TrEMBL record:
Reactions catalysed: L-methionyl-tRNA(fMet) + (6R)-10-formyltetrahydrofolate = N-formyl-L-methionyl-tRNA(fMet) + (6S)-5,6,7,8-tetrahydrofolate + H(+)
Domain Formyl transferase C-terminal: residue ranges: 190-235
Domain Formyl transferase N-terminal: start-end pairs: 4-170
Protein name: Methionyl-tRNA formyltransferase
GO cellular component terms attached to this protein's record: cytosol
MF annotations from Gene Ontology: methionyl-tRNA formyltransferase activity
Pfam family, one: Formyl_trans_C
Domain of life of the organism encoding this protein: Bacteria
Role description: Attaches a formyl group to the free amino group of methionyl-tRNA(fMet). The formyl group appears to play a dual role in the initiator identity of N-formylmethionyl-tRNA by promoting its recognition by IF2 and preventing the misappropriation of this tRNA by the elongation apparatus.
Family according to the record: Belongs to the Fmt family.
Matching Gene3D superfamilies: 3.40.50.12230
Length: 268
């Protein structure tokens, strides 16, 4: 059994199949309306499962029906996005690939919170799934450093690569017994869109981390203005790639030459 939804949950699924594991069922979030036309689109995991010839369901209880007919050894959860109900956990054993060094950053947005907080290191833990929010025992963890210029996208790719290898290797060698989590617990709440607005009074390092997260925005002459990339030069933030409202991404200097800000004029 495999439960996952976004793109970062696709490589572990593909790796499990390539390693010879039989995946009886994939459970993922329902199709969503995307774009202006409102066309229903499947999740990346659903697309991958269909390509691999694996049955797909959208209800966790469907796991029990499959398990009743053909007993399953293990369920694997990677960025599924929903809590699994106790009556399912009582019938099946699950492991969860969590993208932080537990118990730091339990919850929905561990990658984003580690980056925003300025952590020097994060990682991936293979853990036992239980009813609490990311509270289960840990089978193994691998650390991943966060560089001074690492973006959230780059960090996700690295964590997925490391986590995929960890999952496949531990299933091959045997999970063993999980160890209780130790250390200070922190929680990774989902990123609120309001958090992505740049506060120009904040420390420059904090603003740089927000831009590296992706989606950071400000305003210029009353219009929304995104900053996709920036550098810190001599203690000041220098935009590199920007996107004025209604226009494509462009080089900051090219935009500046066209907009011609007045002396002292800056983002709002």
């Amino acid at each position: 059994m495999y439960l996952g939804t976004p793109q970062m949950a696709v490589p572990p699924l593909e790796a499990l199949v390539e390693a010879g594991h039989e995946v009886a069922l994939v459970v993922t979030n329902p199709d969503r309306r995307r774009g202006r036309g409102g066309t229903l689109s499947p999740s990346p995991v659903k697309e991958a499962a269909e390509r691999l010839g694996i049955p797909v369901a959208h209800a966790v209880d469907d796991l029990l029906a499959v398990h009743a007919e053909h007993p399953v050894d293990l369920g694997v959860v990677v960025a599924y996005g929903r809590l699994i109900k106790p009556h399912v956990l009582s019938e099946l054993d699950f492991v969860n690939l969590h993208f932080s060094l537990l118990p730091r950053w339990r919850g929905a947005a561990p990658v984003e919170r580690a980056l925003l907080e300025g952590d020097d290191v994060t990682g991936v833990c293979l853990m036992q799934l239980e009813e609490g929010l990311d509270t289960g025992g840990v089978y193994d963890c691998v650390e991943v450093p966060i560089g001074a210029d690492t973006t959230a996208d780059e960090l996700r790719h690295e964590l997925v690569d490391v986590g995929t290898r960890l999952l496949v290797d531990r299933l091959a060698s045997g999970l063993g017994e999980p160890e209780p989590q130790t250390g200070e617990t922190t929680y990774a709440a989902k990123i609120d869109p309001a958090e992505l607005r740049i506060d120009w009074s904040a420390p420059v390092e904090q603003t740089h981390r927000l831009i590296r997260l992706g989606g950071a925005w400000t305003t210029f002459r009353g219009a929304r203005f995104k900053i996709h990339a920036a550098n810190i030069v001599d203690g000041e933030l220098v935009p590199v790639t920007v996107q004025p409202e209604g226009k494509p991404r462009m080089d900051y200097e090219a935009w500046r030459n066209g907009a011609r800000p007045a002396d002292g004029e800056w983002f709002e």
